[in-house]
Amino acid sequence: MYDFLPPSLKTAMQNLNSNLLYELRLRAERPVKVNYRGEYLFLGEDGVTPRRERAIVVSAREIADCVFAACDYSVYSCSEEMKECFLTSKTGERIGLGGTLVRENGKIIALRDVRSLCIRIPHPVQGCADKIFSLCEADRPRNCILLSAPGYGKTTVLRELCRLLGEKYPEKNILIADERGELSAFDTGDADVLLFGGKREAFSFGLRALRPDIIVTDELQEEEYAAVQSAMDAGLIVIASAHFGKEVHSFAHRIFERYVCFNNEKIGQASAIYDENLKNLL
Amino acid sequence: MISYILYICIVLFLTYIGYFLSGKYRSAKKFYAAWERFHQIFLTEAGYTRRPLQEVIEKFRGQDEFGAFLAEYEKKHAWDGKMDFFTKEDNDFLREYFSCLGRTDFKAQKEYFDGAAKKLAAGRERTEKDALRYTDLYIKLGFLLGLIIVILLL
C-alpha cells in the first residue's frame, strides 16, 4: 500500500497504524494533514502531530509524481477518471484530485496542474454491516439505500453488505456497478464487477449481459434514480448509497424498502434504519 | 604442422576480434528493432485497451539490451543514462521518448509518439545498414590483419 506516495511520506506512514488512518490530504507547498482516529492532525516525520510547524510539506513536483505513480505510470489509462477529478490506485485508495480543468467546446478534456490530493484509505471491516443486514436483508433481499454526508463509511458498509448477501443468498447473482473502483477494492464475495462504467451503462449493459438479481452500486446521483427505478421495475433488487446529510423525510426518492442513515460520531455505524413507511427500526 | 595450425588460429582469432568489435553496431540494430516493436505494441495496447505501461513492459522482460534497459527504466520511470552503442542523438532521443511515456492522456501520447515513429523507423533502418556494413568491414579487417601477421611470420 501507499506505493504511489513520495518517499518522505512513505517513511512517515510507517509510524502510523493504518487501521486508524482514514484520509490523507496533500496540498502543494502546504503541510500534510491526516484524518487519524477520526481527527484531523498533521503528519510529521515521526507520525501524527498537532503542530503545523512539524508537519511534512510536499512540493508540487512530488504531487505530480504521486499522481503519475498512482496512475501506474500510465496517465492515459486513467484520463477519463482524472477528468472527473479522481483516481483509484491499484490497492484501492480513492484519490480526489484538485487542479485546473481544461475545457474544449464546453467539454472537459483534461485535468492539469494537480496541486492537491485527498487520499481516502479504504478499510475492510468484517462485521460492520451485521446489524444493517439483519434489519434489511436477512429474511429476503430488499431495495436499500445508505444515506449520509461524505466520510461516514457508506462504501465500507456497502462492500460488507455485498459480501453478506453473497453468503446468505448463493443462488442470487450479484452485480457490483463500481464506477470508481472503490467498492470492489476488497473481498466482496462471488459478485460480478463492472468497473469504471457510468451507472446508466452499468444498469443497462450489466442487466442485459450479466443477468443479475441484485445490483449494488455506490454514490447515486440525482439523474441516476430513473435507471434505478427501471431496474426495480424489471424485478431487480438495488442496494446503493448516496450523499444525503439531511433528515430522511426530506429524501425525494422514496423507491426503496430500507433507508439506512449514518450521522453518528462513529464511522460506519447506522444512526437510524427506516422501512418503506419511514418507521425507524432501530 | 603445428606452425600451420598456429597461423590458422591467428587468422581465426583476429577475424573473431573484428566480429567482436563490430558488436556495438549489432546491439544498436537489435535495440532499435525491439524499441520499434515496443512502440507499436504500446500504441495498440494504450489505444484500444488503455492497458498500463507495465503490462507492455512485461512482454519485453529479459530480452537482450532492450529488456535490460526497460528493467532499469522501471526502477524510477525515468532514464538519464547512456547506451554505449548509441550516438549522442540516439541517446537524446531515447531519453526524450521515455521521459514522455505514460505522462499524458492517450490523445497527447499518440500525437507525440506518431512523430516518434518516423524517427524510430529511420533509426532502425540506419542501424540495420550500419550493422551490416561494419560487421562485414570489421570481419574483413580482422581477417586481413591475421593474414598480414601470418605473412610476416612466414
Report on the architecture of this protein.
The complex is a heterodimer of chains A (282) and B (154). With 282 residues, chain A is of the alpha/beta class. Chain A has 2 domains: 114 residues, Beta-Lactamase; 145 residues, Rossmann fold (3-Layer(aba) Sandwich), CATH 3.40.50. Chain A is built from 7 helices and 16 strands. In chain A, the strands form 3 sheets. In chain A, strands 5-4-3-1-9-8-7 form a 7-stranded antiparallel beta sheet. A 7-stranded mixed beta sheet of chain A has the order 12-11-13-14-10-15-16, sandwiched between helices. Chain A has a two-stranded antiparallel ribbon with strand order 2-6. In chain A, a hairpin with a 5-residue loop joins strand 7 and strand 8. Chain A starts with 6 loop residues before the first helix and ends in an 8-residue tail after the last strand. In chain A, 41% of the residues are buried. With 154 residues, chain B is mainly α. Chain B has one domain. The two termini of chain B are 13 Å apart. The mean pLDDT of chain B is 90. Chains A and B meet through loops of A and loops of B.
Number of domains of chain A: 2
CATH superfamily of the largest domain in chain A: P-loop containing nucleotide triphosphate hydrolases
Q: Treating each run of at least 4 consecutive H or I residues as one helix, how many helices of chain A? A: 7
* Run of helices and strands of chain B: HHHHHH
End-to-end separation of chain A in angstroms reads: 37 Å
Poorly predicted ranges of chain B: none
For the largest beta-sheet of chain A, the strand count, sense and barrel status come to: 7 strands, antiparallel
Class of secondary structure makeup of chain B = mainly alpha
Quaternary organization = heterodimer
